[in-house]
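Predict the holo structure. Ligand: 2-acetamido-2-deoxy-beta-D-glucopyranose.
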Amino acid sequence: MALNNLRVFFFLAMVVCAAHAGKPAPKGKEEKADSAAAPSGAAGGGDSSDISKLGAKGDGKTDSSKALNDAWATACGKEGPQTLMIPKGDYLTGPLNFTGPCKGSVTIQLDGNLLGTTDLGQYKRNWIEINHVDNLVITGKGTLDGQGKQVWDSNKCAQKYDCKILPNSLVLDYVNNGTVSGITLLNAKFFHMNVFQCKGMMIKDVTITAPGDSPNTDGIHIGDSSKVTITGTTIGTGDDCISIGPGSTEINITGVTCGPGHGISVGSLGRYKDEKDVTDINVKDCTLKKTSNGVRIKSYEDAASKLTASKLHYENIAMEDVQNPVIIDMKYCPNKICTKNGASKVTIKDVTFKNITGTSATPEAVSLLCSDKLPCTGVTMDNIKVEYKGTNNKTMAVCQNAKGSATGCLKELACF
Ligand SMILES: *[C@@H]1O[C@H](CO)[C@@H](O)[C@H](O)[C@H]1NC(C)=O
Ligand SMILES: *[C@@H]1O[C@H](CO)[C@@H](O)[C@H](O)[C@H]1NC(C)=O
Ligand SMILES: *[C@@H]1O[C@H](CO)[C@@H](O)[C@H](O)[C@H]1NC(C)=O
Ligand SMILES: *[C@@H]1O[C@H](CO)[C@@H](O)[C@H](O)[C@H]1NC(C)=O
Ligand SMILES: *[C@@H]1O[C@H](CO)[C@@H](O)[C@H](O)[C@H]1NC(C)=O
């Protein structure tokens, strides 16, 4: 699983890089905003563009992409607060391209459900792409249904390194001060939400659901972003519930329930050149249920980048039957992707695990697998009480090259 995930990230990153390579800087784009905005003029008037008045049909069959893209152009092209209304109903769409900058601030009111077409030929990259938009709000009780079930079979990333990446559901690129609240993301073809180069994002009361065996259906991936808060959110998918990639700073995750899935992960770190540091990550008041990892930090053994992950704080985390409840893995090195030469260039320091309780599905409740050349430093273990449920073995910690202090932990879990 880790291997697949890895390969996928490699290609995803290439795709993202390619996608951004020819993109003008945000400033350049702003100057072109006026001519780029092309209001359709057909909106229902006022400050609201209602897709049902622009030709969308909520019958689950009629392609409503044009109505949605037109509604976006209208809402984005007007000054002041604007609403793009998606009323109750099931609207089938192909790729949606919501690009800014916008003249005012746009709220997407999602009361109905959007269904992403299963005709893969229609997608260039992702399903719903939101680009260069400030003060965006996406809210409502509706659902973004990626309809992945019908296409997961065509995900060959487990077998093929050079695989085609299926469309991510909701992609936020260069979105500042945005909010996503209340909505459900269901059965994405690939990642459910990808947050890239965003500053100031609130993701609140969101539900993300896909089967535990669906391939690469990460809940929320964050990369090169700062001040992102995820709160009151329930995620159960076939891959990481939340993954925090390079360049992420000031990320707060609270009140998240995760499972099934691969847990809440920082990483993978160090795979690509020029990765930026990860710092100020707070994960608090979260529950992990039957996941393969609980809280995980992973980096490549022979990292391409020299970078530091620091000030990672995990507090009040409840584990229910988690396979690797607490894990730092600096020896991540799936075959063929890296060499096991132990020359890590990733530094991991100032990590606090505080009040981590519950049950482990394997004897090794704590694994701190740090590199001999770059040990993990400043690791604080405070009140870690996670017990192996089985009767054939005892609870244990595996501690390699980690330095720090422990207080109030189960004695078999204290690495120091
Ligand atoms: C989205 O729209 C913007 C602006 O109209 C355009 O520059 C960009 O190429 C489009 N992206 C895709 C994936 O179609
Ligand atoms: C985002 O919000 C912060 C705090 O309110 C503000 O300082 C910043 O200018 C805003 N950024 C944008 C791009 O609107
Ligand atoms: C994240 O939480 C920390 C600690 O509670 C707080 O100091 C910080 O302001 C929060 N950051 C954001 C972006 O909300
Ligand atoms: C420890 O965390 C659990 C939730 O995982 C919480 O219910 C409990 O109150 C916390 N204990 C302390 C002392 O904060
Ligand atoms: C207990 O678990 C450890 C670590 O997984 C393993 O090495 C060992 O063989 C196990 N012992 C028994 C008796 O199963």
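Residues 1-46 have pLDDT under 50 and may be disordered. The pocket of 2-acetamido-2-deoxy-beta-D-glucopyranose (ligand 3) is lined by residues 227, 229, 250, 252, 282 (CB under 6 Å).
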